[in-house]
Amino acid sequence: MIGKKNIPKAKCLIKAYLLTHPGKHSSKEISDWITRNDFGIYRGVTPGEVGALIKESTMASGNRNFLDMVQSARKHPNSGHKLYWIEQKGGK
Fold first, then answer.
1. Residue 87: is it exposed, middle or buried by C-beta count within 10 angstroms (0-12/13-18/19+)?
2. Under a CB-based contact definition with an 8 Å cutoff, are residues 81 and 75 in contact?
3. Does the chain have fewer CB atoms within 10 Å around its N or its C terminus?
């Protein structure tokens, strides 16, 4: 389980991953990337924690926060698996 002092770092890494990896990604992909690279988070971040951090952040303060640009959708209509992405505006 991620420690409280690492939550801001994990949020930054989630956003960094989504900004640098265009397309839709599962919480497992994001978690694997954070855990595989040595970002100083002991034992990494689980897929459940990734999903919880995104959900908690996007529901807080009327979507006016650090992860407010993260979008999500279910992989399949009846599944519990979500995909996350940041819509890239403009450019090629």
1. exposed
2. yes
3. C
pLDDT at 26: 95
Q: Which residues of 60-73 are buried (b: 16+ CB within 10 A; e: fewer)?
A: eeeeeeebeebeee
Query: How, if at all, do strands 82-86 and 25-26 pair?
Result: antiparallel
Q: What is the largest CA-CA distance in the chain?
A: 39
Q: Rounded distance, CA 35 to CA 80, Å?
A: 23
Residue 11 DSSP code: H
> What kind and span of H or E run contains 65?
none
Residue-wise pLDDT tens digits, 25-66: 999 999 999 999 989 888 889 999 999 998 887 666 555 666
Reading the block at residue 61, the tokens are 């303060």
d(CA 70, CA 54): 8
